[in-house]
Write a structure and sequence with these properties.
Structural class: alpha+beta
Helix content: 25-40%
Distance between the termini: 26 Å
Radius of gyration: 21 Å
Strand content: 25-35%
Strand order of the largest sheet: 5-4-1-2-3-7-6-14
Shape: elongated
CATH architecture of the largest domain: Beta Barrel
Number of strands: 14
CATH topology of the largest domain: Thrombin, subunit H
Amino acid sequence: MKLAAAVVLLLAATLARAEIDRATMLRVATSVVRIEALVPGRYAVGSAVIIGPDTLVTSCHVTRRASAIDVMHGGLRYPVRSQRADIEHDLCVLNAPGLGGKPVELGSSAALARGQEVLAIGYTGGVGQQHSEGRVVSLYGLDSARVIRSDNAFSSGASGGGLFDAQGRLIGVLTFRLRGASEHYYSAPVDWLRSLLESSANAPAPIAPLAGQTFWERQPPTQPLFLRAFALLQSRDWRALASVAERWADEQADDSEPQRLLGLALDQLGQPGPALRSYERAVSIDNSDASAWFHLGALLHRLGRDIDARRALEALRPLDDELARRLAARLGHS
């Protein structure tokens, strides 16, 4: 895609973004509750979202070692009597008789786009409920759905809470974050929850410790490629990153992120030509990828192509103010 055409399409998409209003925030917040799981020697504290009559969803890594689970709602404690577990996808559906509460509406990760406004609600720190407004940073295809990465900051206690779209629909369950990396907060897509609810293979069972490992706890070579790539990025292993990113790009041809990371690795390895082609492929796949525009513009400037670099900057401005300022400084103008 030509840079000028990409900028025009990008500006049109930017105008269509929806923001989350306070009424929606307050409405869905009443459906996010605190849970306590009795594990050996202590209580593990987490969050859960009401999805049906006396029914909640949470992250299995919060409850999988539990011999008993309680839901805290409206100043009362409700014992959980049974659960349905999908350990692989880190989703557990709990039944707490008498809980009541208003179930949330389920959305889907299929319609999400990079840059979309989202709201995370959970009991960060395990004490009070906290709301974190942010945006979708990226989406990763895995097991017929898309894992959601956002910049809604959350920490211990928020796991099992909800990620909502601007209409207040549950689109993901807050799952894990990568330590030492900004904007790396991940949610399990609600599409996996739908599959769990519809499955006849996961019958409700009494509360007892569960065996198994979640997708994000795996180690190479079975770890999802997007997690392997970020681990290599953090360790600055550029040659290995190039190999993993190339394989990821082959498997996910409609995803800009592996192309961007491939470009970054190739650039660090002293291969500006192939790096430039990867960055250009990244923005042609998704012209809302701010990081790809930034790296493309910076490389174009280094190659002496300042007219094209300025076009990249204009594409970047509506996407990310901070990256736009950094690129503008490199180009020597505001």
